[in-house]
Write a sequence for this structure.
């Protein structure tokens, strides 16, 4: 029965959080209506019954007290007033307290809500869900399950059609073998016989092509629907932290201490495991805001602030990155105290010229604290280092800044999915390297003559605005309005030939990606920047790589692996070599060898992997570079983000998300792309469709029924 109880507790954990999230939402957005009152009553009644089922009488008693008060109010035909709302809010905080930090036992509590005569809730220990082998549960909308079921059904349908197609192909092979053993049948009417065989084979080929596109779309939809199942609203994880913050404020400032906690963006959705991994770090930030941002009532009034401190927890989603920001209107970070502590701990030199951003990056170091004494809430220098480590584990970043006009803002930024990350693809010899976009600050092309040599090491000169690197001393130091960023070859740290090496020079310049980790900047020289892409990352430890430096690997459609670098480990190895520019020289210019003319770049856009592979093979065999896209939306993104200009676009018409006609219109509407010739290549061969494509700006229209690789090559060459 132990396993069953743990399972029930896990289910109850998801249920009670959902009830409290909805009730808090009603209290905050408008509960002065009869339907809102009825909804709160219904959820409290359900919560009471669920607490009874899992034997948590403390929660049952609180819910029962609220239910009694709401019942009497509903009998009188009234609505919630301010006192009711405050009492219900306190009750929700107590339920959170019981579930978050349940004591094994405690004497009966007096009724603090004025909701019932007699005794209030008596807390009885509720084992945290998940302990003892229980699993975590989330509530999934039925619509998502329906969508997942539909995606699986579509994929099964494709599989069934594939089986039938294979049967037809097997029948054809059987007939061909029979002919091989009965040559007299061939002599009877060979033209008609081979014509029938050819039609059957072509029909099977067309259906296979159609089926491949359907399979690609079905797999894409299935992946999206499976991912959607794992999403949870931020409120299910962070909703209870407001109550915990209020308890921390009372522990720190006394029973009368109050803090206003505002929650924003609680409807934002992300992977459950990402949200859960951020919960403890966010709690540390709330505690830090209360302890370090504390001001007395007199101090706040003198500064023109409200009597009670306000802390705001904001969750936002930007592209594929999740941002969790904790801001307060307290006293703000003490930069002098931070600098003094950093000097005492040997982190910086007493005369080092550090700006606010660099100083605030130090507070995330282990053991760093500016508090003069240690208590059970703060002072050991552990909390913020835990936050920083959690951000790194999630392949994200954390930053502290001074709020305006006062206070502190700490921002956690992590990928919304732990498998999906945005990286800059660069070439390093024969390898394709992925540099995480979260740490990239500048992309530079530094001319050979503009490289500044300081103490024998190469540096790039950048405007000081926004730069955090500390300029080196010695000859060649920049003026006050400039900053020097060391340049080191990426090949010195990555690849089989890792060593000092040369700076790769192409066309008289060095391509540099400036990255920043923990407030320090360094430029890594690469052979070529390819593009920015969002990729699904797999664990690289099983591949036999240096898993510290290369923790992840991705396999894009081109089937060339991308090795994703850990910026923290890369910077560690750079610091181990002195943390400055390395004694390397730009590669010597080639001796009387003219630069090779680059091959034309053709983008192939088609939702069929078979068609994409066929066209790619043909084009590469005839000297073209090829870029692939599965539909118009991806093609447009690549056209806008690619560091290399596409010379010709060859696109299908029938595609998901954005078809070929829409892509054609988007290209001609953008001045940056309008001059790129577009070739439509599709199975639509009627006059109306051809006229629509040509009038829309297509430079050529090729039908797949009459496909001839010579025609395709001749068309592309004619457009270059």
């Amino acid at each position: 029965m132990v396993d069953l109880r743990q399972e029930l507790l896990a289910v109850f954990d998801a249920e009670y959080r959902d009830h409290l999230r909805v009730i808090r939402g009603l209290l905050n957005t408008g509960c002065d209506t009869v339907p809102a009152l009825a909804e709160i009553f219904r959820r409290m009644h359900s919560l009471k019954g669920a607490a009874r089922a899992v034997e948590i009488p403390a929660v049952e008693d609180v819910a029962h007290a609220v239910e009694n008060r709401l019942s009497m109010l509903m009998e009188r035909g009234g609505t919630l007033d301010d006192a009711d709302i405050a009492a219900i809010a306190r009750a929700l905080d107590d339920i959170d307290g019981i579930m978050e930090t349940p004591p094994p036992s405690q004497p009966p509590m007096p009724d603090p809500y004025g909701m019932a005569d007699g005794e209030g809730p008596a807390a009885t220990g509720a084992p945290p869900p998940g302990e003892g082998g229980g699993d975590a549960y989330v509530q999934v909308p039925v619509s998502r399950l329906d969508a997942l079921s539909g995606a699986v059904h579509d994929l099964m349908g494709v599989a069934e059609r594939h089986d039938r197609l294979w049967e037809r192909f097997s029948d054809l092979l059987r007939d061909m073998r029979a002919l091989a053993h009965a040559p007299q049948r061939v002599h009877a009417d060979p033209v008609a016989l081979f014509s029938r065989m050819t039609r059957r084979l072509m029909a099977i080929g067309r259906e296979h092509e159609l089926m491949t596109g359907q399979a690609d779309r079905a797999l894409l939809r299935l992946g999206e629907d499976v991912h959607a199942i794992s999403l949870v609203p931020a409120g299910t994880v962070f909703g209870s932290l407001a109550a915990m913050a209020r308890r921390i404020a009372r522990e720190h400032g006394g029973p009368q201490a109050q803090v206003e906690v505002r929650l924003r963006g609680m409807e934002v959705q992300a992977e459950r495991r990402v949200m859960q991994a951020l919960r403890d770090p966010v709690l540390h930030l709330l505690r830090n805001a209360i302890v370090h941002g504390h001001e007395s009532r007199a101090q706040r009034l003198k500064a023109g602030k409200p009597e009670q401190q306000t802390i705001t927890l904001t969750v936002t989603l930007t592209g594929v990155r999740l941002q969790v920001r904790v801001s307060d209107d307290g006293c703000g970070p003490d930069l002098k105290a931070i600098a003094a502590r950093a000097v005492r701990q040997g982190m910086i030199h007493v005369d080092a010229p550090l700006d606010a951003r660099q100083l605030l990056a130090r507070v995330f170091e282990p053991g760093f604290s500016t508090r003069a004494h240690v208590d059970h809430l703060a002072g050991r220098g552990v909390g913020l280092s835990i936050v920083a480590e959690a951000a790194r584990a999630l392949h994200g970043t954390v930053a502290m800044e001074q709020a305006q006009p006062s206070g502190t803002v700490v921002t956690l930024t992590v990928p919304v999915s732990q498998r999906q990350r945005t990286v800059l693809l660069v070439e390093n010899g024969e390898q394709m390297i992925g540099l995480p976009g979260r740490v990239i600050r500048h992309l530079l092309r530094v001319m050979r003559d503009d490289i500044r040599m300081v103490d024998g090491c190469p540096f790039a000169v950048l405007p000081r605005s926004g730069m955090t690197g500390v300029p080196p001393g010695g000859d060649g130091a920049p003026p006050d309005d400039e900053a020097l960023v060391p340049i080191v070859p990426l090949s010195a740290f990555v690849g089989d030939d890792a060593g000092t090496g040369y700076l790769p020079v192409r066309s008289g310049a060095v391509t540099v990606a400036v990255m920043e980790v923990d407030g320090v900047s360094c430029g890594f020289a690469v052979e070529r920047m390819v593009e920015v892409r969002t990729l699904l990352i797999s664990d690289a430890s099983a591949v036999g790589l240096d898993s510290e430096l290369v923790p992840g690997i991705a396999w894009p459609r081109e089937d060339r692996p991308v090795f994703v670098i850990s910026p923290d480990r890369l910077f560690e190895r750079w610091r181990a070599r002195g943390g400055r520019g390395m004694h390397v020289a730009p590669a010597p210019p080639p001796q009387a060898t003219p630069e090779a003319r680059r091959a034309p770049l053709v983008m192939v856009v088609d939702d069929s992997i078979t068609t994409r592979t066929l066209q790619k093979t043909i084009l590469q065999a005839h000297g073209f570079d090829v870029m692939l896209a599965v539909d118009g939306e991806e093609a447009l993104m690549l056209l806008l983000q690619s560091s290399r200009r596409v010379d010709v676009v060859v696109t299908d018409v029938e595609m998901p998300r954005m078809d070929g006609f829409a892509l054609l219109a988007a290209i001609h509407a953008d001045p940056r792309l309008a001059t790129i010739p577009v070739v439509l290549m599709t199975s639509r061969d009627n006059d109306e469709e051809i006229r629509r494509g040509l009038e829309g700006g297509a430079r050529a229209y090729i039908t797949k029924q009459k496909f001839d690789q010579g025609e395709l090559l001749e068309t592309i060459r004619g457009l270059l």
